[in-house]
Automatic annotation (TrEMBL):
The gene is acsA. It catalyses: acetate + ATP + CoA = acetyl-CoA + AMP + diphosphate. It comes from the Bacteria. InterPro entries: Ac_CoA_lig (IPR011904), ACAS_N (IPR032387), AMP-bd_C (IPR025110), AMP-bd_C_sf (IPR045851), AMP-binding_CS (IPR020845), AMP-dep_synth/lig_dom (IPR000873), ANL_N_sf (IPR042099). It is an enzyme of class 6 (ligase). Belongs to the ATP-dependent AMP-binding enzyme family. Its cofactor is Mg(2+). ATP binds at G415, E416, G417, D439, T440, W441, W442, Q443, T444, D528, R543, R554. Mg(2+) binds at V565, H567, V570. This is Acetyl-coenzyme A synthetase. Residues 559-636 form the AMP-binding enzyme C-terminal domain.
Amino acid sequence: MPTASASESSSNQPESSNASGSIDHVLVEERLFHPSAEFTSKAVISTEEQYEKLATAARENPDEFWRAEALEHLHWFEPFDTVCDWQPPHAKWFVNGKTNACYNSVDAHVAAGRGDRTAIIWEGEPVEDGQPRDQRTLTYAELQTEVAKCAEGLTQLGIGVGDVVSIYMPMTPELAVAMLACARIGAIHSVIFAGFSAESIAERNNDASAKLVITSDGLYRRGKVLPLKATVDEALEKSPTVEKCLVLRRTGDDAPMQEGRDVWWHDVVENQPGQMAAEPLDSETPLFILYTSGSTGKPKGILHTTAGYNLWAKRTFEWVFDHREDDIYWCTADCGWITGHSYIVYGPLSAGATCLMYEGAPNFPAEDRFWDIVERHKVSILYTAPTAVRAFIKWGDEHVDKHDLSSLRLLGSVGEGINPEAWMWYHKKIGGEKCPIVDTWWQTETGGIMMSPLPGITPTKPGSCTRPLPGVVPSIVDELGNSVDSEHGGKLCISQPWPGMLRGIYGDEERFVEQYWSDVPDKYLTGDNARCDTDGYYWIMGRIDDVINVSGHRLSTIEVESALVSHPDVCEAAVVGRPHDLKGQAIAAFVTSNDRGHDDEFRNELKQHVRKQIGALAQPDDIRFTAALPKTRSGKIMRRLLRDVAAGRELVGDTSTLEDLSSLAKLREED
Ligand code: WTA
């Protein structure tokens, strides 16, 4: 455990180079923030001993530990016999048990007499007379009826156990209902983020042999209506396995319905009796497929199954978000991403939480929408992404200052490393210096959070996801697969199976083995680099591909980016390597800034700034200014594309997940 007290200086001395092939780290962060005594006194995990006990039990007697967890935290229609059947790389958890993720998320609360508790508070995007036009709350009992009706509708449409249902919907309660209804009957949902193209939908439908698509007429985004159904129609021309399309009326716009194929939600779902019970399902019944981009461009259908995933989502939610009875919890992700699956739907609902769900953009009708929502709904836990935090910084403090954020008690971050300066802003401006920040590291593949502070006990360091959760046994290895010492970066692996782990890539066993289990024997390869400091804190250094090798020093891009972002005039930075005759690789930086002129003076100033922060070694060779960085739709910077731009290559690979293609065009024009 670190013992230093909070201080606000950071010193940055480059480490010397090393021969083992590990990655040098150059950015040293020494600020440390303790939770308040008040926070700790009420926390779910409130002492270091409690954490140690859980972590030790899960590491040393995983079977015993997870048996007790599963019995206490999931409902079992039939008991399991074996806790974990581990035939690397294949795991089966809670073998031969029967449970249901929808039952655990909804019915269990009603059965326990808590049906009147609010499950979902929903707010649509449109605003009329300064107020949100569409708002709904659903209690757990109401959610149960809605989900049962949808399950009845799906059954009527011929959907049953093992059928794949693609869901391409706006962030409405019906999206969560549709997911849960699939889980209720044992159908496999494949949620496709409602910003993807017809081509991407068709690719996913075909890869999974989807039988049904659930969509809506349209979607509100930044005040405009996007015609979802029209996009689905185009996709369905190339999706031969899809038999039916279920359409929710959301915007009321024209949505042509194809006779025999397309049916309205209000015809098929709303008039059902709402009585259908949750089906007892084998623990390993596939729960969902979620497509995530891969290095080759072809998206991978990550497969999660019922019991292990459900338990992991629930317990990690309870541990990390310190969930209490009166919390209003808001995860700003979209259900199209794993964060929405695990921390809008299965995790919080299994824990009986009250979840806020917001349909629209953070800057509609103005840049203060999020803070307006926090104030009106008295949100106590906010979970968002660094890309959003950086956007808020860019938009200006005045939008935050208009609102009373005193209801907040805990903040979370996910999706990317949060640069220390963005962390500090989040801490001060949003958290009022009183809310712990949980920087949660995990992946679509891991099903739920793997490393994170426990907010009641873990002193936080800006930029570190701190320590593994109970049951997570990380190891960091060098190029040769040997463990590296603390303070050295290397490939982050997980060496013990955990309940939420992916069970495969749908329909592609070979790729599953090759991608995650070949490089380092018997360990799950995360694809990220990390280092562990002498306090046992982990620092994610970016994807393995993102390492830059400058004159034999292997540097992580995120450290150089964080140094750039710490300059007051920089909003966002992306750093990549480009070929260089002498050094092997040169450092190319792409920078967005507020009001500064994009001239050589500013360029030089930034180079000097990085030099001062982390040393001459990491000084960027090129700096390009740009209005926006190309990002995936989930907000991650697409470094792969930037590498091509920096090297002057034509763009290659899949760009289907790119959010703003025009930002790429701009990059090429500038400079
Ligand atoms: C990155 C999102 C640093 C990482 C839940 C990981 C992070 C990938 C963090 C997974 C974090 C996510 N700090 N990096 N707190 N959280 N990442 O599948 O590279 O969309 O491998 O899952 O995001 O992204 P995915």
